[in-house]
Amino acid sequence: MENVLVVGATGTTGKKIVQLLKASQYFEPVAMVRNNQQQTEFEAHQVKTVMGDLEQDVSHTAKNMDKVIFAAGSGGNNVKAIDQDGAIKMIDAASKWNINKFVMLSSMGADQPEKSDKLKDYLKAKHNADEYLKSSPLNYTIVRPGSLTNSVGDGKIKLSKSLNEQGEISRDNVAQTLVRTLHDDAPNKETFEIISGDTLIGKALENLK
User: How many domains does the chain contain in total?
Assistant: First the structure.
């Protein structure tokens, strides 16, 4: 079993990731939490935790971890501190502890943030974090979904390095994709976009290779 640190474990998508990892025979989730209440909630469900706040020092959080999923988000508040600087801190922590893979939940549009009106600051922050990860010594996968919905996932997506179209995707399917990319046979050092589609997640990842 590999220990997977879930950054953003208390968020809507993060909680789904933790549940998937908990059900997996390969991975053990470790939820990064900011306070005792969050810690108690996860530990009540037999999920390990580590204390860490992206606006503080997080260099200790990746100790004894094998892989990291970064699914934290500012929700539009404090974009630079969380989506950019927080992600960069976690990449540094992962590098320090020589983790095997860093999976980044990014966003469609992060490749060209200047083209967005409303989300320019957010996408710029995601872009900077993605570029920092690419230049790091880490093995990584960067996943850029379209607009997130809360509809029930069907395990099917449309995936390409560049989709050239807008679209939505359920948080369920995003969480499944992120967890699938943890596997050793999943694409490494790749960046790709996903929206709802007709191809099973595993097959879509195979096709990318």
Answer: 1
What pairing do the DSSP bridges indicate for beta strands 140-145 and 168-170? unpaired
Token pair belonging to 166:
């807008």
Q: What is the pLDDT of residue 114?
A: 81
Distances (CA, A) of 147 to 116, 194, 196: 14, 10, 10
CATH number at residue 93: 3.40.50.720
Task: Indicate the residue type of 133.
Answer: L
pLDDT digits (tens, 9 = 90+) for 51-68: 999 999 999 999 999 999
| Cα dihedral 12/170/205/137 (nearest 10) | -30
Catalytic residue among 26, 122, 132, 140: 122
Phi, psi of 119 (to 5 degrees): -105, 20
Domain residues for the domain of 179 are 2-208
Reading the block at residue 134, the tokens are 């690419």
Respond yes or no: is residue 26 known to be catalytic. Answer: no
C-alpha closest to that of 158 among 194, 122, 206: 194
State the pTM of this model: 0.95
Maximum distance among all alpha carbons in the chain?
44
Return the sign of the alpha-carbon dihedral for residues 193, 196, 199, 200: positive
